[in-house]
Amino acid sequence: MGKRIPDPSGGMRMTECVIFGGLLLDKYFEIEELPERGQDGFINGEFECVGGCSVNMAVTFDNLGGKAHIVSYIGKDQTGQSIMKYMKEHHLSTRYVREREGTTGYCMVFLEPDGERTFLTKTGMELNFSKEILSDELKGIRYAAVTGYFLLNDQTEHIVQVLEAFHRDGGYILFDPSPLVGSIDQELLRRMIRISDMVTPNTSEIGVVREWLTGDQVVILKRGELGGTVYEGNHSFDYLPLVVDTVDTTGAGDSFAAGALFGIAEGKTLAESVRLGSLTSAITVGINGPHGFWKLEDKLKEL
Hints:
Layout lengths: L3 E3 L5 E3 L1 E5 L3 E7 L14 E7 L1 H11 L3 E9 L2 H12 L3 E8 L5 E6 L5 E6 L20 E5 L8 H13 L3 E5 L9 H9 L3 E2 L6 H4 L8 E5 L5 E5 L2 E5 L12 H14 L4 H16 L10 H7 L1
Parallel strand pairs: 3-6, 3-10, 4-8, 6-7, 10-11, 11-12, 12-13
Antiparallel strand pairs: 1-2, 4-5, 8-9, 13-14, 14-15
């Protein structure tokens, strides 16, 4: 179970975090390989699951014994209803999930046999935000994760303002840039990085965020199956991935970020937190789909 933190009322509470990232539906299509432009191909299988970086992070954080609260609107449509039902069935927090008139987004995921995947996303209500969704102003929460996709929101200025206030109040922020980080408004991206305690880019994203890194942030440069490098001030160290059979790499980066953040929230060292992130990422690539429900002690017996 997660670490219990003293509560001012005299009780104990579970380690919590808030995740700024949209909820949508993943539609998987299993293929041998993507055809060349203008050519044909076949779909060998298909399935759907609730997705988005936020739910992948939240499931991992909860699997480790914490409680994650996703910030997202969903549409008042059948897809939105399915997402809400899924979250309630799996005891995922809906504290900051709200319905609005409109459609819920979805992502088409083309999955190849080696686990590689290609995405095409139709955005919806998940790329909306208002301060009213945070009805209790994040009371009692000290840790936050922010996905780069969520900063493609028309209300990104308001999102960053909320996070700046959270940071001023002593909150810890992990920022996971995402492949579309280059499409984020540059000034808002600069402000986001400035208030981040940990930034977790991969090798294609680091070039976009590098100029705004000040040395005050912990930077975890992810290199996929090669592991990665952690930079903290003037020091750095490499980490290696766990070697597992790859089923589907979708959600691996999200799971890594959630594992690392949970470690920090639990008071673990940076190295221990990175190892936890590497472990949760390895568990995820062995699952068909972007996340799964498991207990760490059970998975450790399998690895």
